[in-house]
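Help!! Second protein's tokens look totally different from the first
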Amino acid sequence: MRRWGFYRIAGCDEVGRGCLAGPVVVGAVILDPGRHIPGLCDSKMITALERQRLYDAITRRALGWAVASAAPEEIDALNVHRASLEAMRRAVLALAPLPDLVLVDAFRIPGLAIAQRPVPHGDRRCSAIAAASIVAKVTRDREMLAHHAADPRYGYDRHKGYATADHLAAVARYGYSGLHRRSFRPPSLFDTIETT
């Protein structure tokens, strides 16, 4: 891409689309071509400890990085796909400096007046998108740990809001919390669950 005149190339990726609870969090990262970060790969392929190490390296060495999120209320109002794209747009526009080109994991971001290219399986094929996935994942995990500290009934420290068996059991017992997406109704739950 740099041979075509693009220098500030941002990667953009989200985490948390498939969760029952919590936000979708988007990372946007412009890597510095002169400050290589070894080990960048899809955030789902590495341990939490390695993600933290890489997060620290990315946030120190990148030309720019930003995060944005879509809260459960926005996800319920727009649907998870549209809310994710809006959070991507906000994350990219929060970058300083702004990028010349945005590489996005699988999607195009509507309403973005910056050159962009969707990259299928981008978090595995592109280091800038991998860096964005790591920044988003670490940020979201930290937020879910804070929610767990405030209300440990749902076990967010273990599943981070994904629909695991123990999360579904907690929802069946306690109902939905303010952190749950009301538009996400797992078929294994009865529609009569009361909210808390």
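Here's the second one for comparison:
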Amino acid sequence: MEKLIITAAICGAEVTKEQNPAVPYTVEEIVREAKSAVDAGAAIVHLHVRRDDGTPTQDKARFKECIDAILKVCPDVIIIPSTGGAVGMTAEERLQPTELPIEMATLDCGTCNFGDEVFENTMPMMRAFGKRMIENNIKPEYECFEMGHLDTIVTMARKGQVPGAPMQFNFVLGVPGCTPATVGNLVWLVNAIPAGSTWTATGIGRHEFTLAAPAIAMGGHVRVGFEDNLYIEKGVLAKSNGELVAKVVRIAKELGREVATSAEAREILGLKK
């Protein structure tokens, strides 16, 4: 079984310091949380950025500032900027980080309910995002919140509308209004991906670690972090993203799975630094 790639989604666009004081907003705080995750064993940082007051933004300059600052202290880490941004942003806003020299970026695979809101990803939007990533040689991480998202994006890849094989999927399960975070649903999704693909499991909230354990055992990869969950255990706030990553490392060790470095993750994902 190949080594485990751990991704840390360090801040997201929705969570706040009121919910957990360790949620990072400023460049310095984002660097602190990225370093804590990498030091604990994360090979990838999934990156949203904020203004200093916590307002989510897709501003290209802010992304560059944060990416450059992270790479100064974690020079080998893989950074995957979000093109999801925050609910309500336009496609043009969301695409800004793809104008930077990045290895990977997320590509959301369909419209879905997102709690009380609707996260819009129309077919024309996805085609535009795919075209940009093809042009700029950016490998997408395909974010699937619903089972239909997987079939949609695989069909688009077959038509050449988005980058194709080898594909990397992130199955985000447990978002209120979307596919529940069950082992059965994860198995269904994994069994439907194209041969040669890689995949990551993301469990939202209380499902973070209960989905991580079967994903590790199944040979997949795992995402954790404040974007998805603020607690290290029931009722106990995590002190850092590094604490969440360290828990996954402990689970992996108990299950006999080695953890990948960033260099090893690049090889697994077919990236060139």
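Reply: Different proteins will give different token patterns, so don't panic. The radius of gyration is 17 Å.
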